[in-house]
Amino acid sequence: MKKQNLFFAAVAALVFTSCEKTEIKEVEKIVYADQAGSLSLTFDARYGESEFELNKKYPYQLVNSGGTYDMEFEFSRLRYWVSNVKLIDKDNKEHAIADSYYLVEETNEIAVQHLVGGEKYPATKREEVIIKDIPSGEYKAIKFSIGVDQKYNDNIALTAGELGSLNGMGVSDGWMWFTSYKFLTLAGTIHWGDGTPTSKALSWETGSNELFDGAEKTVDLTSPLKIDAQNSGKVTFNVDVKELLSATDLPWVNNSISQSKKDLMIALRDTFLSKSLTFKEASSISVEAN
User: Fold this and answer.
1) Would you say 206 and 184 are in contact if contact means Cβ atoms under 8 Å apart?
2) Contact 146, 215 (CB under 8 A)
3) What percent of the chain has pLDDT over 90?
4) Has residue 30 got a pLDDT over 90?
5) Do residues 66 and 260 make contact, with C-beta atoms less than 8 angstroms apart?
6) Which residue spans within the chain are E strands per DSSP?
7) pTM reported for the whole predicted model
8) At 143, is the secondary structure helix, strand, or coil?
9) Chain center to CA of 113
10) Residue 14 in this model has a pLDDT that exceeds 60
11) Distance CA 146, CA 278 (A)
12) Quick one: pLDDT at residue 23?
């Protein structure tokens, strides 16, 4: 009898246990504010007050010692390297971003002549750069260079960030069969009805280790930018191609700028940094924890 009672007791305990409601609680993900965050850099290409577009004719009034001339510019390529990014915090400490080499570009399809199969670099538009693992902090300024520093410019086979002989500008825009990078390229066509011929190819390029010195730009932000795991940063620049055209007051004559024209390359670099590339706005954006 005792054995039977023990049996019924065990069965009752089993039934009672199986009828209990099992509750599973989701563990909330904890995000610490002092963890690293991300930063977005946007380079918004413009032509004066208009959006910059390829294969479109833009009016340009040239004023020089010879008089005033009405011209048109039509663009097929705008490309440049943004590199060596540094953030300056509120205590004036610089934080260098490792391997920060980014290709900003707007280009038509490009035939890659040095490749055997007739490969083509596709038409591409890239204005935004996302940088991750930014140390938590408040930043009041940003520094970066336009171009590639000597270590990598002297050996295009080295890779870092987006650099590399098989990537981006290395594929289709290396000097002299891949000996170094072009830092800035603007290409297209100049139209002018007052002469013969009525159009000329536009090919403006900068490069060389010597030009990298002096290629750094420092931008002070209007208010400190908070970056951490809960706040991402966003900085927007205007890139006015119309201002870049003022690098020379003889664009019809100087329609080609390259390594053989050092003074014009310096003028092109300086015009890009001081007049074409300007700060627009910056903000911190709250990031919801997943």
Assistant:
1) yes
2) yes
3) 69
4) no
5) no
6) 37-47, 50-51, 57-64, 67-89, 94-96, 101-107, 110-111, 120-121, 124-126, 128-134, 137-146, 174-175, 180-191, 199-207, 216-227, 231-240, 256-257, 277-286
7) 0.84
8) strand
9) 25
10) no
11) 13
12) 46
> What confidence score (pLDDT) does residue 61 get?
94
* Span 88-110, average pLDDT: 94
CB atoms within 10 A of CB 103: 21
Longest dimension (CA), the chain: 122
Q: Are 210 and 218 in contact (CB under 8 A)?
A: no
pLDDT greater than 50 at residue 177: no
Q: Which helix (H) or strand (E) holds 212?
A: helix 209-212
DSSP string, 72-130: EEEEEEEEEEEEEEEEEETTS-EEEPTT-EEEEEEE--EE-TTSTT--EEPPEEE-EEE
Give the three-state DSSP class for 213: coil
- The token pair that represents 145 in the structure block: 């260079």
Residue 147: which of 218, 202, 244, 213 has the closest Cα?
A: 213
Contact 229, 37 (CB under 8 A): yes
The phi, psi pair for 12, rounded to 5°, reads: -60, -40
The pair phi, psi for residue 209, each rounded to 5°, is -60, -35
Write out the DSSP string of 101-113.
Answer: EEEEEEE--EE-T
Say whether pLDDT at 16 is over 80. Answer: no
Mean pLDDT across the stretch 255-265? 95
Q: Say which residue the tokens 């048109």 belong to.
A: 72
Amino acid at 111: A
Average pLDDT, the chain: 85
- How far apart CA 37 and CA 54 sit, in angstroms, is 34
